[in-house]
Design brief:
4 helices; 0% strand; mainly alpha; 146 residues
């Protein structure tokens, strides 16, 4: 005689894990899509950038599709790449803290350079990435390191 899924204690764990994975996947996909939106905005702003900022703005603009790809990798392979969660969080936390330190003392050539805007946007990215990291237990990717 076998136990049904409702009587099997591991079935609840698996269902819960699957739900957490699915929620994290959708969060990371949303972050990837929004990052592509930031890329489009940066491309649109390119014509208004002063000549002395073109190189740094272009470098930043080209980082958006890279991060969209990283978010996609984390969405679809959350426990297969040791260190990827931590690298993304390191960069996003760095931008968030740096933006916080610049509040009231810096402004930029375009609206997206505003430290308050960056603090809010990257703060939300960090928060949602941390939520997803916890949901999928992203730190377990290190167990697969050979």
């Amino acid at each position: 005689m076998t136990l049904s899924d409702t009587q099997n204690p591991t079935a609840d764990t698996n269902d819960s894990s699957t739900t957490r994975d699915r929620v994290a996947k959708y969060i990371m996909i949303a972050l990837g899509v929004s990052t592509l939106g930031a890329f489009a905005n940066a491309a649109f702003e390119l014509g208004t950038i002063p000549p002395d900022r073109i190189v740094s703005h272009t470098r930043e603009m080209l980082a958006y599709p890279v991060f969209a790809g990283l978010f996609a990798l984390l969405a679809f392979y959350p426990r297969r790449m040791p260190g990827l969660w931590e690298l993304v969080l390191f960069q996003k936390l760095g931008i968030t803290f740096f933006s916080f330190s610049l509040l009231g003392s810096a402004s930029g050539a375009v609206a997206s350079d505003d430290p308050m805007l960056r603090l809010i946007v990257d703060g939300v990215l960090v928060s949602l990435t941390l939520v997803s990291y916890g949901l999928v237990q992203g730190w377990t990717a290190w167990r697969n390191l050979h």
